[in-house]
Amino acid sequence: MVSFSAVAKRYPGGKEALREVSFTLDSGELAFLTGRSGAGKSTLLKLIPAIERPSAGSVIVNGQNVGALKRSAIPYLRRNLGLVFQDQKLLYDRSVFDNVMLPLAFSGHGPREAARRVRAALDKVGLLERERSNPIQLSGGEQQRLAIARAVVNRPALLVADEPTANLDAESAARILDIFVAFNQVGVTVLIATHDQRLVERYGKRVLRLDQGRIA
Amino acid sequence: MRSWLRQHRQALGAALRRLSRPAGLASALVIGIALSLPAGGYALLESLRGLAGRLTLEPQISLFLAPEAKRTDAEALGARLKADRRLASVRFVPREQALRELASEHGLSEVIAALGRNPLPDAFVVSGKENRTVEALVADLGRLPGVAQVQSDTLWARRLASLAAIGEVGLWLLATLLGAALVAVTFNTIRLQILTQRDEIEVSKLIGATDAFIRRPFYYLGLLQGLAGGLVALGIVGAALAVLNREVRVLAESYGSSFIFSFPARDDAAAVVLLAGLLGWLGAQLSVSRHLRQIEPR
Fold first, then answer.
1. Which of B257, B234, B249, B191 is nearest to B42 (CA)?
2. Domain spanning B60-152, CATH class
3. Whole-model pTM?
């Protein structure tokens, strides 16, 4: 599903965020990406949806060489990915429902089918009763679950999350991770970056440890 | 295909909602005021041109024959004039008719009776096809055999025509300038709109929106804003002409005329609105291609 081989990423100015990173994530697998802040977790995740391009090596997602993808092809790559960000990137000028609706605006579903999918996604993260609320009214954990609902509404085969439990209390964090595990159990490939070592150990899943830009 | 149409409908709806906000309406108003100047000037000029047309702007030229000329000379000259392609019309005025008209129209019958003979020559009244070459035409006609004198009172007509021409050039300059202003205004409103929607654009790009999808509502906004500006301009022109005509009517009536400034013809009015829409779209296009690329997810 995801394959990195000898990937390096240097930012302008010479900072080397990733060095010789190679790993493969099989279809249906769930893995944690851990490491201290600044270890390169975010950079690694950004290479998957082509938010950043590798300086060397190749990033293959779903059989596509993402690093060599044309600009015009990137939207179609991202439609098959579910992305969850640390800062959620929710839109506060519209309701919970409309936030989840956003990815369906250009997916070609009719309005009825789209609404059905939005409610199904909200139901899976336990926010169905809040669909009329504004995201600003939600707690931190609820906002993160809303971001997950938006990421999965298009039923992607791969779910990528960057520090989804940062700034959350232990109970909310556990609930978030439980949701990811549930998606993984129905076949979705999941990659989660987190610096919370204890949380990772509890699930007993595969762990990729990044240290100073290398897989340790 | 259906989803493509739906996307366009959604983009149009979003653009309409943004236009109906105070900022959108204010931009349409600015565009309308800017456009009302050339559109109004055009309406005035067209009305004046109609007026000048009714006053037979194409000047009449009178050719007088020598008093002793015979009728056969006049007929020969008449045939030559009719064959001249530069002339739009040729009318023969026999000396007897000229005398009768003089007697009846100007109340000079007693004076004429006292003369005892007809002092008037045969004459032709002709008009040229083109205003500009009328002087050369007058000179040529004066050299024709049998012509004793040529009279043409063209100076005022030429002055009016050149004034109209200057007005027209001025109007085109004004229209070009304010058309550029329209593009600039749209460029800026779209830029502000893009900044306001920065988050939405960034998120849309992250979840797989194509550039075309993101650009579409802004194109529609530019187009609609231009169209609305065009309509505002027509409204301003209509109102201004109505106010102006109240006074113009009084003045015209004192000259025995029913002249008023008329609203631009339907085709011209439609052209103003469409052109405004087109320029708005152009402004949006320039703004979007310049500013949208700067918003990339980090």
1. B234
2. alpha beta
3. 0.72
